[in-house]
Amino acid sequence: MARSSGGKSALSRAVRVLEAFDPSRNELTLTQIAARADLPMATAHGIVAELVELGLLERRGRELILGVRLWEVAVRAPGVFGLRETAFPYLEQVRDRLQQHAQLGILQGGEVLYVERLSAPESAINFTAVGGRIPWYATSSGLVLAASASPEELNRLLALPRPRFALEPQDSNADFKNRLAKVRQEGHAVTRGYIHQDSTAVAVPVLGPYGQAVASLAVVVPSGGFAVEPVLSVLAPAARAVSVKLREAFAG
User: Fold this and answer.
1) Does 108 lie in the same domain as 55?
2) Would you give per-residue pLDDT tens digits along the chain (252 residues)?
3) Do 123 and 24 have their domain in common?
4) Residue 195 CB contacts under 8 Å (≥ 6 apart), including other chains
């Protein structure tokens, strides 16, 4: 594969162009893409032109957006797509019964990637978005997935820098291990006021065919008058049902 003078392949530079887009900036000019991808303007121009030709980017006036062709390719990913399709009806049930945000997340590196989110009118304040990422230590989904991780994976997570993301507490590794042990014992994680002071998130693990946590099912509810039991009475059965469906799909 052709490489630039900096040692980066053409493919890796194209990925950097695509990763310049995020849920907060889904329309970018060529200049913005070059800056966010840390590429020379001429290099970015050539990559963007080819991605537009392939349908992976689309032009909207002076700005560019991710193309529908990219979505067509992405939804074929068997892991995320199968998980999302399996969990979707149960997410709907959680959303409808609690009338609050219901979301599905997976652990990617040191972040939670949200692969689905359903909202209801008058829902609590929630800054997550489909395709968005939040550091694992700043969200209930991240805590419940970290609590279910292997000792090696947990040590890797704890070794990563933990800059303040929003309002989450700044804990030591020892404090994190104690908190995650409690999450593991109770089977759920609660983060009150981590992202916004008026919102509380509750997450439970979704288990894969070998009993490992492959995703988290979470809701974001108002902090005022919060009680965990009514939330768990809806959330936990939904996560167990998704886990059963995943095991059945794997066995079948």
Assistant:
1) no
2) 344 445 468 899 999 999 898 767 889 999 999 999 999 999 999 999 999 999 999 998 889 998 888 877 766 665 566 888 899 999 999 999 999 999 999 998 899 999 899 988 877 777 777 888 899 999 999 999 999 988 899 999 999 999 988 888 888 999 999 999 999 999 999 998 888 888 899 999 999 877 889 999 999 998 888 899 999 999 999 999 999 988 887 665
3) no
4) 126, 127, 128, 134, 138, 139, 165, 166, 167, 168, 201
